[in-house]
Amino acid sequence: MENSALLTELERSFTEKNYQTWLGVRLVRHKPGFVHLELPVRPEFLNTLGTVHGGFLANLADSALCSAILSELPPGITCSSIEIKVNYLLPVRGNILRADASVIRRGKNIGVSRAELFAPDGALAAVATGTFMIQSLSSFSCLPRVD
């Protein structure tokens, strides 16, 4: 069953000023346990060969993997990456990257998700898995703030 407060929190995370919005990552579709993200490719994302640098694919994968977990968590609970693994399948050229991610398993403290990243022509460009620590947002209050 969909939790509208939960999804509103997820949607808000893609509209606040942060790293993801600076990059241009967009939350296109979501439901509990699933997200579809898009990342418009900018010239700065290209490597010397003219293809999208793998780091941007890894970033999109990490965002999608974590967001899939977040889509199942109640308000006030978040997740952070423990490990991600990305298998790059082909070099990507073009103007937009797409990612679909879904939850494989979520427990009380750990969640695991899987993502597929697609080139503009729909070709499967990478697959990724991620493991995430699930914790209260209040556990981050002890961290120093960077302004």
Automatic annotation (TrEMBL):
GO molecular function: fatty acyl-CoA hydrolase activity
InterPro entries per record: ACOT13, HotDog_dom_sf, PAAI_dom, Thioestr_dom
Keyword match Iron-sulfur: no
Cytoplasm recorded as keyword: no
TM ranges: none
Every Thioesterase domain range: 50-125
SUPFAM superfamilies named among the record's database cross-references: Thioesterase/thiol ester dehydrase-isomerase
Keyword annotations from UniProtKB, A to Z: Hydrolase
Family classification: Belongs to the thioesterase PaaI family.
PANTHER family recorded: ACYL-COENZYME A THIOESTERASE 13 (PTHR21660:SF1), THIOESTERASE SUPERFAMILY MEMBER-RELATED (PTHR21660)
Protein name: Acyl-CoA thioesterase
Organism of provenance: Geobacter metallireducens (strain ATCC 53774 / DSM 7210 / GS-15)
